[in-house]
Structure formats: C-alpha cells, structure tokens
C-alpha cells in the first residue's frame, strides 16, 4: 500500500457553524482513514482572501486534496461521510 502523505487544505471564512463543522468532520475522517499520513492546513479567507485564487475557491467551506494528485475538491460542511470518501477518493484506501 502506498504510504504517501496526503496534503489537505480546508478553506473557511471565520468561525461559522459550517466552518467549525467541516473542520471537525474532516479531522474525524482523517483519523479514521489517514491516521499519521496527512497534513492539514486550514485557510481562513477572512484573514487571507488572496489564497482563494490559487485553488479557485468559489464556495466555502471547501476541502482541497493537493496530494496525491489529481487535485480533488469537496464543498460543504463535510457531514456526508459517503460523499467525502468518494470526493477525496478515500474508498480505494479502505480496500486494503
């Protein structure tokens, strides 16, 4: 099994209910499926609005999987477990 580090970036705008929920859900999924194999960066667009352009962020919260490629995005509070696993392509890992 490939043990490469996953690089994830979560774009939020302040401490809204959706942003806090998205971060909590993401941490839960990462611990469940990527324990010890991920780096998570949280970008608050209220503090760093210029960072939205690089990943073409159109809605928030948005999760971007930078590595492994290809880049994948999941928009929303990440409460739909199935959608997040499919969106990040984590299902393949669970087969191992």
Automatic annotation (TrEMBL):
| GO BP of this protein | rhythmic process
Which stretches make up the KaiB domain?
Answer: 9-90
Record CDD domains: KaiB_like
User: Residues of the signal sequence?
Assistant: none
Question: What PANTHER family is this protein classified in?
Answer: CIRCADIAN CLOCK PROTEIN KAIB2 (PTHR41709:SF2), KAIB-LIKE PROTEIN 1 (PTHR41709)
This chain belongs to which protein, by name?
Circadian clock protein KaiB
